[in-house]
Design goal:
Elements (H helix, E strand, L loop, with lengths): L1 E6 L1 H18 L2 E6 L5 E3 L2 E3 L1 H10 L17 H8 L11 H15 L4 H12 L4 E4 L6 E7 L21 E5 H7 L6 E7 L10 H7 L2 E4 L4 H9 L4 H7 L4 E4 L2 E2 L2 E2 L4 H8 L5 H8 L10 E4 L12 E4 L7 H16 L7
Parallel strand pairs: 1-2, 1-9, 2-5, 9-10, 10-13, 13-14
Antiparallel strand pairs: 3-4, 6-7, 6-8, 11-12
Helix pairs in contact: 1-2, 1-12, 2-5, 4-5, 7-9
The chain binds ligand FO1.
The site of ligand FO1 has 16 residues, from helix 1, helix 2 and helix 6.
Length: 340
C-alpha cells in the first residue's frame, strides 16, 4: 500500500511518527508532502521549519519540549548575532540547527532544488519516510495585519499582488507568530509565490500512485492550505480515485497544539472539527475529503458527504498515533454510511 500524507508543523511531524510505525508494521510505503510556506531567509540562511521539524522528529534529533529545532541545542550563534544587534533578534537560530541551514543554503546556491537538498539532508537523518517539499519554488506565507509600530528589523513584503492597502501591511508568517505571537489585528493570509509555483519533483507522481491520501492533523490555514495552493496538488488529490481521509487538528474547541484557533478566527471559521472538515469540503461536492477522523469528544460531528469516525486523537506516544493512522486507513478502506 502506498500512503501519501499532506503535512506541516509540529503536529504533522508527530503524526508522521505514528504513520511510520503503521507503515513499518504493514509494509506500506510512506511519502510526506510537506509545507514550505513557513520557510524564510534570515541572516542569509534558508530555513525550512516544517521540513526540519519532520526530519529531526523522525530522525530522533528534535527537541521534545520545544517541538522545533535540535535536542541538546546551544545558542552561541544567536547570542553573538544579538551582540551585533543583527535583526531579527526575535528569531532564535540554534548552533546545531545552523549547520542544517548552512548545508541547505549552500546546496540551493549551487543550483540544487529544495527536493534534492531535502533528500541529501535526509541521508543523515534516515527519517524512514520519503520527504518531499510541496514545491521547489519560492512560496512564503505572509500575513496582512493592521500596521503595527514600524520598527528596525521589520520584514515587509507585499509582492503578493493582493497586497496591503491603507493602514495594512504584510509581514512574514514567522514574524506574525514568533515576534507578535499572532496577537496583531489580522486580516488575511497570503501565499506569496503560490500561483507561479510548481509541485516539487515527485509530488504529482506520488499522489497519482497513492492508494490512500491522508491529511495530517496540521493547521489547516497555514500548514495545509499553502500545500494545496500549489497549482496541480489539489487537482492531483481530486484526480486520484483513491480515498482521502483527514484527521482533525481540533479536539473540542481547541487545537491539539499550535495556533489553528487564531488562524481560523481570521478566516471567520469556527474552531471545531466540523468547521475544519467543512473548510476542506467533501469530495462529492468538489472538495477533498472522503473521510474525517475526530476525537470521541466530537463524536456528534456530522458533515454532509463525509464519513466521520471517532477515535482518540491525542498523539501521546507513537503507538497511540499509529492507532490513529490505522483507524484512518480503515476508514479509507470502508467508508460506509456517508451522510448527505
Ligand atoms: N519558534 C519560536 O517560537 N521561536 C523561535 O525563535 C523559533 C525559531 C526557529 C528556528 C528554526 C526553526 O526550524 C523553527 C523555529 N521556530 C521558532 C518554530 C517555528 O516558528 C514554527 O513553530 C513553525 O514554523 C510552525 O510550524
Amino acid at each position: 500500500m502506498r500512503i501519501v500524507v499532506l503535512t506541516g508543523g509540529i503536529g504533522g511531524a508527530k503524526f508522521l511518527v505514528g504513520a511510520r510505525e503503521y507503515a513499518r508494521r504493514t509494509g506500506a510505503e510512506l511519502t510526506a508532502v510537506v509545507n514550505v510556506g513557513d520557510d524564510v531567509i534570515l541572516h542569509g540562511l534558508r530555513i525550512s521549519p516544517d521540513l526540519d521539524s519532520v526530519m529531526y522528529t523522525l530522525g530522533g534529533g528534535a527537541d521534545p519540549e520545544r517541538g522545533w529545532g535540535r535536542a541538546g541545542e546551544t545558542w552561541a550563534v544567536k547570542n553573538e548575532l544579538a551582540a551585533y544587534q543583527a535583526e531579527p533578534t526575535w528569531f532564535g537560530l540554534g548552533d546545531r540547527d545552523v549547520a542544517t541551514h548552512l548545508v541547505r543554503t549552500t546546496m540551493l546556491n549551487a543550483g540544487y532544488p529544495l527536493s534534492a537538498v531535502t533528500e541529501a539532508l535526509c541521508a543523515r537523518w534516515q527519517p524512514g519516510v520519503r520527504l518531499l517539499p510541496a514545491t521547489d519554488d519560492r512560496l512564503e506565507t505572509h500575513v496582512v495585519v493592521s500596521d503595527p509600530e514600524p520598527a528596525a528589523g521589520d520584514t515587509v513584503d507585499d509582492d503578493s499582488g493582493t497586497g496591503p492597502v491603507g493602514g495594512e501591511r504584510a509581514i512574514h508568517f514567522q514574524e506574525w507568530w514568533i515576534r507578535h505571537r499572532g496577537a496583531l489585528p489580522t486580516h488575511r493570509f497570503v501565499f506569496v509565490g503560490a500561483a507561479q509555483a510548481k509541485p516539487a519533483a515527485g509530488v504529482l507522481e506520488a499522489l497519482a500512485a497513492a492508494d490512500v491520501m491522508l491529511i495530517a492533523p496540521s493547521n489547516p490555514v497555514v500548514s495545509i492550505a499553502p500545500v494545496l495552493a500549489v497549482p496541480g496538488i489539489r487537482e492531483a488529490l481530486a484526480g486520484n480515485p483513491a480515498p482521502v481521509v483527514g484527521v482533525s487538528p481540533i479536539i473540542g474547541d481547541a487545537p491539539v497544539r499550535g495556533m489553528a484557533d487564531r488562524c481560523l478566527a481570521v478566516l471567520g471559521e469556527p474552531c471545531t472539527a466540523a468547521g475544519v472538515a467543512a473548510l476542506y469540503g467533501a469530495r462529492r461536492t468538489a472538495g477533498l475529503l472522503d473521510g474525517w477522523l475526530v476525537d470521541p469528544v466530537d463524536d456528534a460531528t456530522r458533515v454532509d458527504g463525509i464519513e466521520v469516525r471517532a477515535v482518540p486523537l491525542w498523539m501521546s506516544d507513537p503507538a497511540a498515533t499509529a492507532a490513529m493512522v490505522e483507524a484512518a486507513i480503515e476508514l479509507a478502506d470502508r467508508p460506509t454510511g456517508v451522510t448527505g
